[in-house]
Amino acid sequence: MNEKAKEQSGDKKAPTAEFLKAYVFLAVKSGEVARTNPYKSSFSTGSSGLAFGNMQHDTKKSSRNVRAQTYFRRILDAEVAAQHLSKAKADAIYTAALHNPKSLENKHDRSLVDAAL
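RE: above sequence
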């Protein structure tokens, strides 16, 4: 470390409690990092339905969730291309995730979703 860098690092003050509280709040709000592996699906306690990833991408049918639906479809399509899922099964999982996500809870299809993630 050069002298200028040492001087600058010594000049830094510890963040305030208010700053840290706001920082953590924004990080959690924007990330919603789950306590579980981000490569496994989860179900929202609210009305979002099936979610995946460390950003909790919600798949339930909504104009706000188009990006998550697109990613989810691509993940399933990749599994079809790798011959891990049939096209019909991938389509059924996708439709359930958008329209009736609770149907995937605690079922074999949920394990297929997690394997795809």
